[in-house]
Amino acid sequence: TSIYAITKRDQEEMCLVVGRAYGIPTVALRYFNVYGPRQSLNNPYTGVCAIFSSRIKNNNPPLIFEDGLQTRDFVSVHDVVQANILAMEKNSANYEALNVGTGNAVSILKVAEVLIKLYNKNLKPEVTNKYRAGDIRHCFADISKIKSKLGYEPKISFEDGMRELVAWGEVVEAEDRFEEAYEELKAKGLAK
Predict the structure, then answer these.
(1) 3-class state of residue 118 by DSSP
(2) Does the active-site annotation cover 4?
(3) In Å, what is the CA distance from 91 to each residue of 29, 34, 155, 175?
(4) What would the pLDDT profile of 129-145 be if each residue is shown by its tens digit?
């Protein structure tokens, strides 16, 4: 539904085709919503966990598009590292495309509520009921293939991962640049 998705698919297909053609072991890993320590809390394009963290740290409520019940698969950077190492060490997934996630759907509203609680702030998420062009309602990974091919098993629960993200967020600066990014989306006709 977006140019971003098309370019991801095209890059994946090109890598797999070149790998097969030249006998270069190649695996395409499809990362879902990656979050974790060392993620920039100043860049409004690094994902909803970072965006919400920077807003909350600056005593601004997280702004949520739609009704907040849309879902995503949030995967810790530690589990992404695990998937990468497995793909490098094993040949059982060569020339395959594999989803890297948890297989669990978490609502955007829950993300906001959990982060507010962990940051110990007296804020409420602001559900805007506005929409962004190209957003999909639900997106979570089927990880059965990566489990069977590589033995991947997510180890970091959403709750533990959020605690780790907040611990990181408490010791770094976070500039809330959401409004600037939102104005850019509106100017390009991508948000209402």
Answers:
(1) helix
(2) yes
(3) 14, 24, 22, 43
(4) 988 877 889 999 999 99
